[in-house]
Design goal:
The protein is α/β, with parallel strands linked by helices. A hairpin with a 6-residue loop joins strand 6 and strand 7. 37% of the residues lie in helices and 19% in strands. A seven-stranded mixed sheet has the order 7-6-15-16-17-14-18, sandwiched between helices. A five-stranded parallel sheet has the order 9-2-1-13-19. Bound molecules: flavin-adenine dinucleotide. Flavin-adenine dinucleotide binds next to helix 1, strand 14 and helix 16.
């Protein structure tokens, strides 16, 4: 067989799908607008500092292990992995942070110190989360939901209560814990999946199983190593990855995508797989008649936040930080209001800081630290030069105050990445960092589909489709979509 596939975008979802199609004998070409593969998971280096531009949490390691086995390979052949200890540090106020790590006894003591009975309740919460995770992995994630009946299947109906798909995460956590710090530790991951815990289905308590039971890992070289590994794996399957190819149009004739047009060339294909931003591709690369999801569909979606990111190279060591650090303010609902309801720059925000130089000596010059500061913010904000410069200073002052580390005068690298960069670099709809939020109405069958409804050989893969946001999720999406394409090709 020598059927051809064009993949638009070399994000992790695009690379993974390309590798899988290559393995099946397709002649695959990946067209990527940027000058390196990996999409949001790219590397940026400056003055000896190496920054993961996007993801930095390596979660659900089994998904990665499984992916490499599909090629008769092992993950170790591509990058080494180490478990982190602690997994992360949490600041609830200036000073006196707490560490969460693999020592379960200590985590239980911490929860007991938050409120009497906390240790036992944590055990019971995590047991349920483990159960939901196992069901989700076994039955819900590696699957296409083409109709509501695929979603409301027998298992879901019988186990609806146990899986708690239709309840709200924040309410379900509150049934176990009154202490706000305990609740924040169990809910924070939703924000990184782009969703207000008050809008997320309780099913997502699986995220607590993901971090507290399965643990947080670090691939040597950072998350960009995953992109590099997938690019290598794809090349080994004969995939041709072409960089600096900005796709401008998908030409449809007789109901099928026939050609993909870039700024300088045209490519014919039997199938087209879009990994680029779904909203952008539907509304900008296709004519109106061929759009399954036109502009008004996207206007009505709940978007995931954008992120205000700082890449900082610091000329000294910062003793108060570990590899992953989080700050949860006392009134984090105010921050969620600023993201999901009022669309304003949040004052004194919750934040995430990674300092991978704590684990990886190659991430910063000797005696220095590499900081990645992330504040979730509303999509669509006006981030003029002036606004973001001022906000950067505000955020740096705030991080200094909470962590007790002074580093403003020791910066030798300082780069801001916000809405307009997400638009410029990735064509991200309204500058969203993560695409669509994981509300119940945007879960499984309610997410945009893998197959175009209007164009018979056009497919989509990435964080907008099921199962959704995050590196392991887009690897799963790639497996589902490549199976669908193989099936359709007979
Ligand atoms: C700052 C940040 C932190 C994150 N942290 C984590 C984390 O810690 N852990 C985790 O698991 N997930 C994290 N995520 C989410 C995760 O990175 C994404 O869900 C995932 O990488 C998305 O992959 P993708 O393949 O869907 O898309 P993308 O990475 O967006 O790739 C799409 C590709 O398409 C290309 N493209 C767009 N338009 C065109 C065009 N017209 N022509 C050609 N190419 C085009 C883009 O340049 C891009 O390379 C984070 C995301 C961000 C932004």
């Amino acid at each position: 067989m020598n059927k051809t596939a064009i993949v638009v975008g070399a994000g992790l979802g695009g690379l993974a799908a390309a590798a899988l199609l290559g393995r099946e004998g397709w002649k695959v070409t990946v067209l990527e607008k940027n000058d390196s593969p990996g999409g949001r998971a790219r590397l940026w280096s400056e003055k000896g500092y190496q920054f993961d531009m996007g993801p930095s949490w390596y979660l659900m390691p089994e998904v990665f292990e499984h992916f490499f086995t599909l090629f008769g390979k092992t993950r170790e052949q591509y990058y080494p992995l180490q478990g982190l200890d602690p997994y992360y540090r949490v600041f609830f106020a200036p000073g006196s942070p707490v560490d969460i790590g693999p020592d379960r006894g200590r985590v239980e003591e911490l929860f007991e110190s938050f409120e009497p009975g906390g240790a036992q309740r944590l055990r019971s919460y995590l047991e349920k989360a483990r159960y939901k995770y196992d069901v989700a992995m076994g039955q819900f994630l590696y699957k296409e939901y083409a109709s509501i009946f695929d979603f409301l299947n027998l298992r879901m109906l019988i186990e609806g209560t146990r899986l708690n798909v239709f309840g709200r995460l924040d309410r379900s956590v509150r049934r176990y814990f009154q202490d706000r710090r305990a609740r924040q530790i169990l809910e924070y991951a939703m924000v990184f999946l782009g969703t207000d815990p008050a809008q997320a289905p309780a099913l997502y308590s699986i995220m607590s199983h993901v971090d507290l039971n399965l643990g947080v890992h670090y691939p040597s070289g950072g998350l960009q190593a995953v992109g590099a590994a997938l690019a290598r794996l794809a090349a080994e399957q004969g995939v041709d990855i072409q960089l600096n190819r900005d796709v401008r149009k998908i030409v449809v004739e007789n109901g099928a995508a026939r050609r993909v047009v870039t700024d300088g060339a045209e490519y014919g294909a039997d199938v087209v797989v879009v990994n680029a931003d779904y909203a952008f591709a539907e509304t900008r690369l296709l004519d109106r008649d061929h759009q399954s999801y036109p502009a008004r569909y996207w206007e009505r979606r709940v978007l995931a936040p954008s992120f205000f990111v700082l890449y900082l190279g610091v000329k000294k060591r910062l003793e108060n930080l570990v590899h992953h650090n989080l700050y949860f303010s006392e009134d984090w609902e105010r921050h969620f209001d600023a993201i999901f309801r009022e669309a304003d720059w949040p004052g004194k925000p919750c934040f995430y800081v990674s300092c991978i130089s704590k684990t990886d000596a190659g991430a910063a010059p000797r005696g220095r630290e590499n900081l990645f500061v992330l504040v979730p913010v509303a999509p669509g904000l006006d981030d003029t030069e002036d606004v973001r410069e001022r906000y950067a200073e505000e955020v740096i002052r705030h991080v200094e105050e909470i962590t007790g580390e002074q580093f403003r005068d020791s910066l030798e690298v300082r780069r801001i990445f916000s809405h307009r960069d997400f638009v410029g670099d990735y064509n991200a709809y309204k500058g969203t960092a993560l695409g669509l939020a994981h509300t119940l109405n945007q879960t499984a069958v309610f997410r945009p589909q893998f197959r175009s409804r209007k164009v018979k050989n056009l497919y989509y893969v990435g964080q907008y489709t099921h199962p959704g946001v995050g590196v392991p999720m887009v690897l799963i999406a790639a497996q589902v979509v490549s199976g669908i394409i193989q099936g359709a090709a007979g």
